[in-house]
Please model this.
Amino acid sequence: MSLAVLFWSCVVIFGLVGLVALQLIVVHLRAASRRRERQELERQWLPVLVAALEERPATLPPLAGHQVTALMALWNRLYDSIRDLSSAPLQEIAERTGMDAAARRMFASSTLHDRVLAIRTLGRLRDRSVWPALVRLASHRDLLLSLAAARALVRIDPGEAIRLLLPIVAAREDWPATTVVLMLQEAGPDAVSQPLVDAIPQVPPGQVHRLIRFLGLAHADVAGPLLKLLVRQVTTVESISACLRVFNDSDDLGAVRPFLYHPRWEVRVRAVDVIGRLGTAKDAPRLIAMLSDSEWWVRYRAAQALCALSSNDLGRVKRVQATHGDPFARDMLTHVLAEQGAA
Amino acid sequence: MIAFVIETVQWFCLVYMAAVNTGYIVLSGISFVVLGRYSQRHSLDTPQVYSEFEPPVSVIVPAYNEASTVVTTVRSLLQLRYPQFEVIVVNDGSTDETLSVLTHAFQLRQFPEALRVRLRTARVRGMYRSQTCAELRVIDKENGGKADAMNAAINAARYPLFCALDADGILQPDSLRRAVRPFLEDARTVASGGVVRIANGCDVVGGWLLRPGVPRHPLALLQVVEYCRAFLFGRLGWNSLNSVLLISGAFGVFQKELVIEAGGYGAGLAGEDMELVLRLHRRLREAKQAYRITFVPDPVCWTEAPESLRVLRRQRVRWQRGLCESLTMHSGLLFGWRGGFLGWVAFPFALIFECLSPIVEVTGYAVSLIGYFTGHVDALRATGFLIVSVGLGILLSAGSLLLDEIAYHTYTSPRQLLRLIVASIGENFGYRQLNALWRLEGLVKWAAGSRLVWGDMTRSAGWSADLTAVRPPGNGS
Model:
């Protein structure tokens, strides 16, 4: 290789090194300046926002146009932390600072961060003008966008939103169940109960378990009859487990007991749970038998259920522990009794 | 003849150097794009989309003679912002005070737990529960190595995900939440790992990381740049191609059932973390199952870097052995039927440019020196090659610092940044070459099949202060 090629290689490489080093310094200084600016905004505005929850502020600190996004983030953060307080003062501040108009502009932003922030803000401001767009976004393939849109819809009009969202809840595997629970809780049982009971028979059998698991959030008198029917009809492991998870009718335990002998342990463990919650002393022999199940979780839950059934007389459980023929069952009872402080 | 051999070797080394650096530059380009997108996506300052929805996690800390750091680690874990988790510390037959310091700090009491043994391990001597922190359990077992300790903890773990963590690891309060996020975003995720950083030089008090810092010790400082490059370039680049070959044993989250089905961690291996990841890749590909093994660029685990050449050498020799061992054990992935990008690009890249690179590097240096002293190599040309090689090294290191600065701005003071820039230059003069020698030693030892000796990983925990004065969060006492 000629020396000229080596020389120019060195020039190019060290030129690039110089450029990267320069950029590194510029990025560092810019990040430091942004951080200072954000801290300053927070120092000025956080006390104002917090005080506004008590009393309407007469004047607001100055706000430059480029600071609106940062204020919007701070406003949402505060909103997240005041679940039980009135949100009206924060809404008024949003209008006085032009945050609502800024959020509507940001709603179409190409930046995901700005878009989600705008959706959350407009949802909290109950801005109906974006309703059709939010409905479309709730089915967006991007998880963050779809969830943000769904929550905004629930905040704007819970009753209408739940009706629209339930088929999506059933269809989307990627929506975390706990997120959905939070949305349904926010909407409240009045808005959830009837639409949920109406939606369950409409969805395909492969998706039904995704709705059944939320029946516990509906009014018991509305959901109960359907659950009674479902527990006898559904056949998939997911659906049976979903039914047993929310099952709460002690008069109908006869429908649950056969599941103690289901070939899948995921079902057996749920059935043991139900017996532990709703069973009577008559179920003790069944639970004692379950202590010898091949699956650790079934044995563990059976021991817990047995203790729950005999909570007034743990001496009985201790006698079972001492006399049970299966060493796995004895170990499990020793474990659970120790957990209960009764070892 | 000698001149021909020297010239051939030099040309080979030059082509090799060009190929390896091209590979890293491509990976760095991918990393810049991916990190830009990731930062934008996850810069929302409230975690409300996911909060309280995460599946429960068992955090596993295997400890062998970790009396100086284990209490700090457990305290840092107990302050994690995560809805439901348990911490399982495994005392793997330590000969120091590991169990007694834990017993004292967390008021441990022996507990008659009915263990669900699904992976075979060395004998468990006892299970302990903390009287002050309900979520803490300790397994005391006979020594069986790190993999064996991990398997014992997996047997005791109650939750569907487990997080493997080194006993000297300090997590940030939201590290676990961020590492679990891929499991929520993509149901195909079976494992995720995060960035590991150097704790030396940071302010850590009672398990709390108060302020990230840059170490004073030159050896630790050089490792800061090295870790930055390894995590932000290498793994992030491969991640977008679902070809992550390693989730560091220092910090990774796995689906428990899948790991149990795969047989757990392989005992007696030098690189049990990489071997497990490759085994998962292999099994899932063979089963034609859609899956993701994800590297998350921002969850941060801070770990202590060795400050002595002796300990560092031992660590690097072991890492190289682990790499060789894992790649050969799963050579079936190489150009395999269902290998995909992993089998056709990432695996060969690791084999040629990471596993075999010490041979080429050390041979290149040796031949150049021999050629120089025997007059077969032109001094000006040799210097030119050296400058190009060093320049490329600096370019990649500086690029990784830039990437870190754009995404995280971890080191806030200009003085810290300056020291890192100096380190990114300095590591090319001696440190890189020393590393190549140690890695060659690891490769030779692996090839010779010599017995694996872990040795004590002496930890000073000099960055951690006031271990006993600070009340552990949630202690309630």
Notes: Confidence is low (pLDDT under 50) at residues 466-477 of chain B. Residues 62 and 150 of chain B are 6 Å apart (CA to CA).
